[in-house]
Design goal:
Structural class: alpha+beta
Number of strands: 19
Mean pLDDT: 88
Largest sheet: 6 strands, mixed
Shape: globular
Number of helices: 33
Strand content: 5-15%
Oligomer: single chain
Distance between the termini: 89 Å
Radius of gyration: 32 Å
Length: 903
């Protein structure tokens, strides 16, 4: 290896090191929390470490701490399997989870960070490991393009908004492995096909399967990439056969099929198939390999609302990542930004989209030309080029490392040259077409799949830079075009930077254009310069234009991070841990379930990994109903016997809708009355009725704490959707609370307004009026144009989607008014107006929720009833102990409902 070759390799290593430093440096600010000192204190734990950014992190942390504590994850070993008794009351569940994150974090802690707490190591692990995606991204991209292109591709991939938003400090989830293993898997897969030597084919195939095998131990989504490359293999074999891709002539074989079966392409796929089956069987077992196809279909159909289980709704439609993403975020400049607001934003902006599509088009067009391409006769193809045009050995290695896909005029040389170029071009054309199509289809199933489409577009953007570099150096000599392209690049780079600081954006634009003007008109090119400086300036401008959106997007993300929880919620869970029996079950909506498990060390009804349609229905029903006896009955049933009563009734009646109707009827009643109704009203046998009642009214009722928190106001649209599920029509409605982000001052004898809803140019205000005497406060809503403040009129009639039919005024803790507003057309809301010392907060409540369990407990503090006892409160969090003994079913006299918002 000569000096120049060594320098070439060293340069790549240095570039990778710099990129690693840049990517990690952009992640670090997320740990600093750019908040006021008071808020920062609220979002950090007792050790000064910020709380984690989302709830899945707490599940991974708990398992990681379990492994460190007793050598296995979960709480118990049952028949050789690990069981988690913190989840899915009352039974817990068997752990079936990829534990790569657990093993790796413990290894890092034990090997390198023994002086740090395991929680602190976990806090940083995602940021450190995800940064290593730079390595496979650069290697893959450098295989296809030059250094400039590889840098662009690497930054677009490593800083991709949806990936970056799940891999900064404080985000401890399996996303950290996503790009590392998927890129290595595909890279070595393709290298297996490209390799000429059978030994290298086997080596690359083994490396590819090791990558996907490790991926299978780290994230469930690994099956997506097995499916992707399986589809690619089939398509590539068909295309290769159709385009006659092979090493030797067909005349040497009896027919075309026999010829093709002896070619490199077919052999490569066979090797990958055999090695892949054996390798994955080692990692996943035979059943794991044979079940991949079904798992892949299940992964892509998760979000389908039609996929109901036993007639219950699909709870995953409420998961943000499973929602259909927008193509672009809102705003005139959105197309030029990289963020999580849309698909185009998610891949790095409009420039990355267009450059990727340009490369894809060029590859397809070049592939199609191979059908009619003619081969030149060898002639003097072995003649050496002029001495000045000969390449150094390092440059030859560099060129052999690239794919050599040429967008310019295609001049074929010898047969070997034609076949080599044909092989490479068709290989990558097929790969990128399949990759883009499959990932585009995946993205249509939910925004979580945007991370998958970034990879092909990032790599193609890098290829584009390589093409552009060659074209600029060799063919672009028009100064006006150089200036025009530089101006465009300055514009594309300035817009995202201006989102951070407008002055910086303007300065960047001026700098790029000024450099172009100076090098074009102010600096003369000397004879010793092979490539004029102005061309390098333009190449760098293109690089900056493509990477600035993702770099700026990453900076904005890390500098605006707010943890997923704060002291009030954590302290409330610690109160539960210190003041309740160990068999207490925490029930609430599923979002904070993982945090409840680790902070309170108690079992939960369900969490982010065990949410199901039936439990979502029952929790939604409990919070939506105005019957507190029913709410308590639901908690008694779910947290003591699970869904056994429901399953038994479905088995007896064959109808999930009828089964839930029966349960809703009998849960508030005594056990004896429930059993009578089951036999007389619903015609069950005595034994069947006894079985059901044993599940609905168990002798041993577990203690239950219901957690009501302010975030659930904004999520009401979902929990009411599930709670009001219509089993017959398989559909539902959702009801909402509209809560302002601030209070408004209204002094006696004055009127003031406060915005409750801003939506696409429309603002709905609460207009609050106070007289000078007692009980003279009133309010109504109005809909106005956001820009002008004028009232919205339709057909000369005021338009208002949030008209109120009822108002409840609470001042200084006393209900001062609780009355109907009058005959207001299309009035579907109740206004709860709370005032204290001239500060007022108006809350709009869908009439269906005005007397709901959640409204009565969280907004009215549980007044006027004795089933749910408020045992602890923090800012935005209230804990209610369920007093089953005070229910009718528990032998009590029943709950009063005198303090409802709608009498």
């Amino acid at each position: 290896m000569n000096k120049e070759t060594t320098m070439t390799i060293a340069k790549s290593i240095i570039i990778i090191a710099i990129l690693l430093a840049v990517v990690f440096a952009l992640k670090v600010p997320a740990a600093d929390l750019h908040l006021s000192d008071d808020l920062k204190a609220e979002y950090t734990d007792s050790s000064g470490l910020p709380y984690f950014s989302e709830m899945d992190s707490y599940y991974n942390l708990r398992l990681t701490e379990d492994y460190a504590d007793h050598g296995y994850v979960g709480d118990e070993m049952i028949n050789g399997s690990e069981w988690d008794m913190h989840r899915y009351a009352p039974t817990g569940n068997k752990i079936n989870y990829e534990l790569g994150i657990v093993y790796l974090t413990n290894f890092i802690h034990d090997t390198f960070c023994g002086d740090m707490s395991l929680r602190e190591v976990a806090f940083w692990t995602g940021a450190v490991i995800s940064t290593l995606a730079v390595i496979p991204a650069f290697i893959f991209a450098r295989r296809l393009t030059n250094d400039y292109g590889a840098i662009v591709a690497t930054l677009i991939i490593a800083l991709a908004p949806n990936y970056f938003a799940h891999t900064f400090p404080g985000f401890f989830d399996t996303d950290m492995f996503y790009y590392i293993f998927s890129l290595f898997f595909i890279f070595f897969f393709i290298e297996t096909i490209r390799a000429k030597n059978i030994i290298f084919k086997v080596i690359f195939a083994i490396l590819s399967i090791i990558a996907i095998g490790l991926f299978s131990q780290s994230w469930t989504g690994y099956i997506f990439y097995i499916g992707l490359m399986g589809i690619f293999s089939i398509v590539y074999l068909i295309v290769s056969y159709f385009f006659n891709v092979g090493e030797d002539t067909q005349g040497e074989y009896s027919n075309k099929l026999v010829w093709f079966l002896h070619q490199n392409e077919f052999l490569s796929i066979v090797i990958l198939g055999v090695v892949g089956f054996v390798g994955l069987a080692i990692f996943q077992g035979i059943e794991g390999v044979t079940g991949i196809f079904g798992n892949l279909l299940g992964l892509l159909s998760l979000q389908s609302a039609s996929r109901v289980v036993g007639g219950f709704p699909n709870v995953l439609v409420s998961v943000a990542e499973m929602q259909m993403p927008s193509l672009l975020g809102s705003g005139m400049t959105s197309a030029f930004l990289a963020n999580t607001n849309g698909v185009i934003n998610g891949i790095g902006g409009i420039a990355v989209l267009f450059t990727g599509l340009a490369v894809l088009y060029a590859l397809i067009k070049r592939t199609l030309k191979f059908r009619t391409a003619k081969v030149k006769t060898p002639g003097n193809t072995t003649k050496k080029p002029p001495k000045g045009k000969r390449l150094s050995s390092a440059k030859k290695i560099d060129n052999s490392f690239k794919g050599n896909i040429n967008l310019g005029s295609f001049n074929f040389g010898s047969t070997d040259e034609l076949l080599s170029s044909k092989h490479v071009t068709i290989l990558y054309a097929t790969l990128f077409v399949v990759w883009v199509v499959v990932t585009a289809l995946a993205v249509s199933r939910g925004s979580r799949f945007i991370t998958t489409i970034v990879l092909p577009f990032g790599l193609m953007a890098g290829i584009f830079v390589g093409f552009a570099t060659d074209y600029i150096k060799n063919k672009l000599n028009n100064d006006k075009w150089i200036i025009a392209i530089a101006v465009l690049c300055g514009f594309l780079a300035a817009i995202p930077l201006a989102q951070i600081n407008a002055i910086y954006g303007i300065l960047l634009f001026i700098a790029i254009v000024a450099c172009a003007l100076i090098t074009v008109y102010g600096i003369k090119n000397t004879a010793s310069q092979k490539v004029p400086l102005k061309k390098y300036v333009l190449i760098i401008a293109i690089v900056i234009a493509l990477i600035t959106p993702t770099v700026c997007g990453a900076y904005l993300t890390s500098s605006t991070v707010v943890p997923g929880t704060s002291d009030p919620m954590w302290n409330s869970m610690e109160w539960i841990n210190e003041n309740t029996p160990e068999d207490t079950v925490i029930t609430s909506w599923w979002d904070f379930g993982y945090l409840f498990e680790i902070a309170a060390d108690r079992q939960v009804t369900f969490d982010g990994g065990s949410q199901s349609g039936d439990r979502a229905f029952w929790l939604g029903q409990a919070m939506t109903t105005d019957n507190l006896e029913l709410s308590a009955g639901i908690f008694r049933m779910l947290d003591s016997t699970g869904t056994l009563a429901q399953e038994a009734l479905i088995n007896y009646t064959g109808d999930s809708g009828k089964a839930t109707d029966i349960l809703i009827d009998i849960l508030p009643k005594t056990a004896s009355d429930a059993q009578k109704d089951l036999t007389s009203k619903y015609h069950l046998t005595a034994d069947q009725a006894k079985t059901v009642v044993n599940y609905t009214h168990p002798d041993d009722v577990r203690p239950v704490i219901f957690v009501a928190s302010s975030d659930m106001l904004g999520k009401a649209g979902w929990w009411t959707y599930f709670g009001a599920w219509d089993f017959e029509n398989q559909s539902s409605e959702n009801y909402n609370y509209y809560v302002p982000t601030q209070q408004v001052e209204v002094k006696p004898g004055s009127t003031n307004k406060l915005s409750i809803l801003d939506d696409q140019g429309m603002t709905v205000n609460a207009v609050i009026t106070r007289g000078t005497g007692n009980n003279t406060t009133s309010a109504y809503t109005e809909a106005v144009y956001t820009e002008t403040g004028e009232q919205i009129m339709i057909n000369e009639t005021p338009y208002n989607p949030l008209n109120i039919s009822h108002i409840v005024v609470i001042e200084d803790g006393y209900i001062m008014k609780n009355e109907s507003v009058g005959n207001v057309k299309d009035a579907n809301f109740t206004m709860l107006l709370m005032g204290n010392e001239n500060q007022y907060t108006p809350i709009l409540i869908s009439n269906e929720l005005s007397n709901s369990m959640f409204t009565r407990l969280f907004l009215l503090g549980g007044a006027g009833q004795d089933i749910f006892e408020n045992v602890h409160s923090e800012s935005g969090v209230m804990l209610f102990n369920v007093n089953f003994n005070n229910t009718v079913a528990g032998g009590g006299s029943g709950s009063s409902s005198s303090n409802s918002t709608n009498t």
